[in-house]
Structures are given as structure tokens and as C-alpha cells.
Amino acid sequence: MSVRRLIHGAAALVAALALGATLWTGVDDGGTALAFGVLIAVGELTRWKGGGSRRAAPLGTAGSLSYALLGAVAGHPARHGAAQIVTVVLVATLLGGVPHIWRGRTHIPTPDHLARRVLKVGFAAVCFQPPYSRGVFTHWDGSAYALLLVALLVLTALCDAVLAAALAHSRTRWPFGALLREELRGLLGIGSAVCATGVVMALAVAVAGLWALPLFCLPLLLTQLSLRRYAAVRATYRQTITSLARATEIAGYTPAGHARRVAALSLAVGRDLGLTRAELTVLEHAALMHDIGQLSLVDPVPAGATAGLPGAEQRRIALLGGAVVRQTGVAAAVAVVVERQADPYRDQPVAARIVRAVNAYEEKSRDAGAEGPLRALEELRLATAGDYAPEVVESLARVLSRDCLTLPVAG
Hints:
Structural class: mainly alpha
Number of helices: 17
Distance between the termini: 39 Å
């Protein structure tokens, strides 16, 4: 059984037990359950395809965690238990996704998202609600109680990061360590805002009542809207780079789809080597534009295959490409990778090493028939003494052997 199925099965079991217990005992504090259910549903309704549940639906996540850590409402002890919390969160999350399903949108709650939401909310509720109901935290003063909630949310966020990395590893076969590091880095951004908002809402409702919910969720809602605008700008930026990369294909300097294939395979190698999200972005943009220097040539290189050219000519084309990239307004880091893709690999940044090796592999394998990929990989391995970084070539071999990447077809 895969890790993904195991996590989904555990989440389904927790959800079934919670739903059964809630149906058996009934719903306590119905008004509180309704208020938090509406908040979570609104958070899911405003979700967007931003990658990861924290960025896609931060309001829904904060509301779920706040409900899990809610011990009182306007000074009166809350009577809901962990089972009711999981049930309310699950039902509200599903209801919030109905409009997305109805309109045929792609950013609906996925099974991975639902499994993580159920397990992390269940974890937080089980850690907090039973001790609270037994009066363990009765004599804790305000600061100690707030620190307790923060500590519980930090622990919950760490567990959720492990779950997210495990699910992504099972789905993509990318290295678990690199995926976990990326999830932990995400906790420092929107993740910290989600945790802070969850704690503030739980404390505010405990003192002032349910009217505090709309007041304290407003900043996170505005943050979510800002992230959506930022994502739209990034999408437009990437479309511009993709259009620039196609210039060499339209002009007949490189085969159709070459830049997209090099970018897709470079990203897979970069993930295998554990590059950060920012480094992967630079790598993708540089891979898309790695051949743009050929536009400055009077006589095109046959089939755009620069890997077989003399080293001096390769470096000249790379420098021309870097100059073009700098004039387009693309990030300077991308221009550096394009400029240095033909340097000796010991002097190159990691992204340039990857682009050089993947470009050579794609050029050597595309026209060599059924045995082309194996033959191209063997040529790269034989050239690791001077031309290609050994760790990049071995990473490329691992990526190809996993066969977990769907590359655009040529032509």
C-alpha cells in the first residue's frame, strides 16, 4: 500500500468516526458551529489554484484551526468535542467546494487537501479539547495560554508539512527531503500568518464572542486577495518568457517544442537535486530561454544543436543570449544562467549545469531513434570528466528511470 493511500485511508477513518459520533450525540453549541462552518466555507469558496492548501485557502485553514483550539465563547466554556470539530470542518470544506465543482473549475478541494485538513484539524482538536474539558488549562494566565495555543499550532503545522511532503512524494516520486524542506520554508510565509490568525481568532472569540470572527479574519482575506493578484502577475510574466522562448522556433533556429522539453526535464532534475522554489523558477525561465542567443547568428546552427559546437562558439552564443535576456527585463539571475551555460561545469552555478546537461541530452536523443535516450545518456556520462557535472548527469538518469515526467512531444 502506498503512503498516499495510507494517509487517505487514515483521514477517511477519522472522518467516519467523527461523523458517526456527532450524529449519535448531536451538535453542541450550534450557533458556534454554524459561525465557524460559514467562515470555513467562505474560505474554501474564495480558494484559488495557488499551490498548497495554506496559500490556496488560508482563511479556511485558519478558521479550521481556530475552531479546533476554541475553548470558550464570550467567557462561557464551549461544549463541542474533537469529533464535532472534525465533522463541522469537513462538511464546511465540502460545501465550500460545491460552487467550484458546479462551475467546472480546477481549483476544487482535492483528496490530498481534504485528507490533510481532516488529519491536522483532528490532531489539533485531540491535543487541545480533552485536556481543556478536564480543566487542565483553567489556571493558566493569558500569556501562558496564548503561548500554549501557538505551540500547539506550530506542532500541528509541522505535522501537516510532513503529511504534505509525504503525499507529494508518493504522487510525484520527487525526493522527500527536498519536498519537506520546501514545505517548512512555506511555514515562514503564509503559514505563519495562518497560524497567527488562528490563535488570534480563538482568543478573541473566547473573550468577545462570535462577532470577533469577521473582524479578525479580514486581514487574512485581504492577504489572500493580494496573493491572487501576485499569482496573476507571475502567470503573465511566465507567459511572456514562454513567448520569447518560442521566438527561436518561429524563426526556424530550433526544433518545435525544444525549449519546453528542456525546461520540463530541467525542472525535474532540479527537484531531484533539492533546489528551492525560487531556484526552480530561475531554472525554468533560463531553460526556456537558453537558445535565445541563436537569434543573433547570421547562419543558423543545423537543427539548433549547439552541444556539438566548439566550446568557444558555445560560449559566444551563450553570451549573446545573456545579453538578449538582459534587454528583455527578465530577472538578472536568469541572464546569468543563460550566459554561463557553456562555461566549464566546475565554474557554473547549479542551474547552468542542469541546463547544459539537459539541453545536450535532448539534442543527442531526439533524432537517434529508439536507442537515442540510452545512447545520449551514455555520451553524457563519458563526458563528465570535463563537460558535464557528474551529479547532474546521475540525477538526470534517476529522473529518466523513474519515468515520472511527461514531456511535450516533438513536432
